C-alpha cells in the first residue's frame, strides 16, 4: 500500500481524453438503450450483449477454501473453483456495523468475493487510527502497564502492549468477519501491517518495542479468536521485508514470533496464508526460511504497474502455488500517492486484466478515495473530501464489476498463461514484452476450448493468434471491458495464424479490448 511511485508512471490517458469520456459514454449508452427498446438492424458484427447487464452473481462458497489439485487456484469444500476477485478495504475495521455492511453489500453486488484489510490500523491517512468504531482501541495498556490512550510508539511515546487486547474493539472485528462469511466474502486480513520500510504506515516500530514474547502472545490471541472462522487468508508483512527493504534482525524476530504464535493454534479452519512484502515482490521472494515456508498463496505486488513481469514470475515458481495479483495502481490515486493526478494511471482496469491473465488465480483492486474510509471533510481541497461512499461507483469500480462477471462466465480455472506451464506462445505477432505497456496478455485452456487475450490501450495494430492453440473451429468475439458488450467477429479454423484488429475507441477514449475465442 506504499504510495511511492516512479517519476514516470505507467502510460495512461490524458485529462482531455478523460473529459471526453462522459460525452462518449453518454452517446453510446443512449444509442444502446434506443436499440434495446426499439430494435436495431445490422450485420453479424453488431453488439450481442446489452450495456448494463448485472454482474453474474457469485455462488456462496463452502468455506474454508483449499488449494486445487493442480495448485493453480483456490476451491471450496465442494470442489467449486474460487477466483480471487478482491477489493481493498484497508480501514474497514474503523467503520460502524451499518457502514461495513454497506461496503460489503456493495462489494458483493459488483461481483467481488474478497476484501483486504488491516485488523488494526496505523496509517495516518486513514480514518482516525488507531481507533476503531466508537473510539475503541485494539489494546488496553501501554508497555509500562498504564492505560493506553492511543498514542503510538513514535517520538518517545509509549506504544501499546500487544498482549493486552481490548474486547470492545475486537467484537466489531468479529462482526465484520461473520457478516463477510455470510455473504460469501473471503477476508485477506493483516494481524499487524508492518508499513513501508517499517515506518509510519504500519506497526513495525511498536512490534519491535513489544519484543518477541508479546508478539507471539498476540499471534496466538488472534489465531485462537478466529480459529473457527473459515473465510480468512492470513497476511504477513506490509510493504516491507524483501528486496531493497528487508527486515532488520530485530524486525524479523518479531514478525517470526507473531507467525509462531499463530501457528501454535491447532485446528484452525482457515489455513491459507500470503503476504505483501516490499514493492515489487512475489511471496516467494522472502528469504527467511520460516516465513517462506508458511505461505500457501503466491501474492504478487507491483505498485509500479509492470504487473505482467512479476505475476508471470509467480506463476512460474516451483513448487507451484496459486498466483494472484495482490496489489497494483489504484483507481483515483495519482502517482504521488496523494490523489493529485489520478488520471495518470487510467485506465486502471488494464492492471487487473493483465494480472489475471498472467496468473489465473485472481486479483485485488483498490480505490484511493475508498480504502481510508474517511468521512466527508468540510475543509479540504481534495476531491476525496466528499467521503468514501461517493466513490463506490466510479468507472474503475464498474469496470471491475464487468471483469468479475466475465471471469465467472467462462471456465477461467482451465486457463494457462501464454508461454508458461506448457502452453505455447498464443500471440505470435503483436504481443510485445511483458514489461512494456503495449503487452498483450493471453491465456488458453490446454484442451483447446477457450482463449482470452487482453489488448491494452498502448497497443496499436492487429494481433496475430496461433490458431493451433484451439482444438477445433473457434467462434471469435470482441468483449468491450467498459460496457460488457460482445461483438461477433466470425468463426475460424484451428490452423495456421489469424490476424485480429481491435475495433478502436471503446467509448471511453481508450482502445483496450478483450479477444475471446471459444471452440465452436
Notes on the protein architecture:
With 520 residues, the chain is an alpha/beta fold. The protein has a domain at 79-410: Alpha-Beta Barrel (TIM Barrel). It is 25% helix and 18% strand. The protein contains nine helices and 21 strands. The chain has helices at residues 15-38, 97-109, 167-182, 204-225, 249-263, 289-294, 307-316, 349-359, 395-408; strands at residues 66-67, 74-75, 81-82, 84-88, 114-118, 186-190, 232-237, 272-276, 281-282, 298-301, 323-327, 360-365, 416-417, 427-429, 441-444, 450-455, 463-466, 474-479, 486-492, 497-500, 513-519. The strands form four sheets. The protein has a nine-stranded mixed beta sheet with strand order 8-7-6-5-4-12-11-10-9. A six-stranded antiparallel beta sheet has the order 13-15-16-21-18-19, covered by helices on one side. A three-stranded antiparallel beta sheet has the order 1-2-3, with no helix packed on it. A hairpin with a 6-residue loop joins strand 1 and strand 2. Helix 2 (97-109) runs parallel beside helix 3 (167-182). The longest helix is centred in the N-terminal third of the chain and has 24 residues, at 15-38. The two termini are 43 Å apart.
Topology:
Blueprint: H1 15-38, E1 66-67, E2 74-75, E3 81-82, E4 84-88, H2 97-109, E5 114-118, H3 167-182, E6 186-190, H4 204-225, E7 232-237, H5 249-263, E8 272-276, E9 281-282, H6 289-294, E10 298-301, H7 307-316, E11 323-327, H8 349-359, E12 360-365, H9 395-408, E13 416-417, E14 427-429, E15 441-444, E16 450-455, E17 463-466, E18 474-479, E19 486-492, E20 497-500, E21 513-519
Parallel strand pairs: 4-5, 4-12, 5-6, 6-7, 7-8, 10-11, 11-12
Antiparallel strand pairs: 1-2, 2-3, 9-10, 13-15, 14-17, 15-16, 16-21, 17-20, 18-19, 18-21
